[in-house]
Structure formats: C-alpha cells, structure tokens
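Okay, can you check this protein?
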Amino acid sequence: MRRLKPIFRRRTFSTTTTTLLKSRSVVRFSGPDTIKFLQGLLTNDVRRCFGGHSSLYAAMLTPQGRFFCDLFLYQAPRIDGKDEVVLLADVDSSVLDDLVDTFNKYRLRSKVDIENVGEEFSCWQRFGADHHKRQPSSTGSSFSQGNNTGLQWHKDARLDCLGFRGIFPSNSIPPMVEADTETAEENYLLWRLERGVAEGSLEIPKGEAIPLEYNLAGLNAISFDKGCYIGQELIARSHHRGVIRKRLLPLKFLNESGTEVEQKVAPSSEVTSLKSGKKAGIVTTVLGSRGLGLLRLEEAFKESGNLVIKGQEDVKVEPIRPEWWPTEWFLEHEPHQAAG
C-alpha cells in the first residue's frame, strides 16, 4: 500500500514532461540461455523483444500465481562486442535484492549472467498531454530518439497514453530532455493514478495481488499462448473462467459538496456502499485527492455517490472508468464516468 506526500497538482501536462524514476533500478541479463531462462519465469513472451518489439512489459509471479514484481525489458547493446543476447530490465528498486536472489535461485545450470547494474543505468519516463499522439521522427513505431550509447526511448509497452520510457547511462542526460521539462516522479505517479495504472510492488502488493485483478492483461503484460511459466495455473484458470469480479480502478476523494479533498484517506482504507452497507473494496494507493482502489465492479458502478470511506462517511469515493478498458470488463448497463 502506498501513500505519498501532497504535491502541487497541475490539472493537465500541456507539454511533454520528463522524470527520472528513482523508484526503479536496472538488472542486466546476458548469455546464450537468456531468452529460454526468462521465458520460463515471466508472464509475457520474451521472444517478442526480437520480433519487431524492442520493448516488453511483463510480470514475475510466485509459484501460487500471485504478483511478485513487474519488469520492462529492452534489447541492449552487446557487451564488449560479444555476439550474445543482452537484455536490460527496468525493475522496482524496493525488491531489487530479492529479485536478483530469486533469479539466481532459478538459474541452476542455465548459461545466463544476472547483474545488478543500477549504479550504471537509470530509468526515465516521458509523458504529457497528447504526447503519445505525436509520433517521433526517428526509427520506428516502437521507439524514438536515442544517443551514441545505443540506448533509446521506447513507446511505453503498456499503453500509448503513458508516453515513452527508457534506460540510459546514469552519468548522462537522455536525449530530448531539457532542464525546464523535468518534473518530480510524483507527477508521473499522478499521471498514472488518473489513468488507473499501478506500477511496482508497493502499488501491486507482492505475494498478494492477483495479476488479472490489477489489469495486467489489459496492460500487455501477459501472453496466454506462450507456454508454461512459474505461476501460470492461476492466471490460465481465471482467464478461461472469464469473470473478474474485482478490478483496480482510479478513484477521486470528494466531500459532501463534491469538492476534491486531500489528506483525508489512507491506503488500506475500506470502501463501503452507503446503500447496502457492504464492503465494496479497499484503497491501495493515495496521492492527494486521487488514488487507486481494488473494488467489486458490481458495487463500483451501481450508483453515483454510493461509495464512502468506512468510518469517514463524509468522504465520498468516486470510481472512474479508464478509457483504455475493454468494454467486456464492464456490465454494460452500469453507469460510469470515463477517464483519459
């Protein structure tokens, strides 16, 4: 569960904005067994990194099928001119050591080197209003301008509206970054919250979260035809059953007059229905007057103004439907408000 200090909120980011992601670190995989090794551990098809997709979003699960961590994978320049597969992974800094230990535990006799290169490389994000609609002029649909290190910006592998993402040397500023366009990472968090996208093990609880409830299929993190991987059974069973009753949603917190309120709600707060008195879900992440919550869809969109924080009935909870959600995720007769 995640709560951050309040920040100056800009209602829109009218220009392209860039942030250094201090919450993320970098792991390098290299060696002849790299693809086979990761293919048996991650939810997505790692071969896509070499089939026209230069970046990939994926998750690693526990053997019970619960979320362990998320990763962004990128092709990397060869090491010292060696003709071998090299992938860089953008990972959550808070689980870095545990993640590297887990990868090493599964490595056994696989010919793959796993290195923490967080001191050498940093993760960056470019985002802003309509940024995803302005196609960069460089090398293709999946990535934009790079620099002489061979590293470059890539379209965010989850959603176009999230902009571009990349890994770059820590001792340099990425291309296309101007001093007056940098912003605090909390502003990128706000951008994600308003679109209903969680990231990392603080927002997607490690060892607890069910990936489909946190919308990882809609965020292009899961391949349902790639073959076996650790934790696949729960994912496949839930997917083929076809009903996900709870999902992660963006939330607004309002007072009784409908004005947004800040610093009134904490993560783990229970969301209840005024009409039925039943628990509708739980708040998972909070930033100012915005947040994310894991809610039952039947309750979330039943009736406007129906949800409140338990024990703080003067704080109303307004779930928002993200525009990127597939229509089949909804009961079509339920009213809803769209979010960009």
Remarks:
- The first strand starts at residue 2 and ends at 4.
- DSSP finds five helices and 19 strands in the chain.
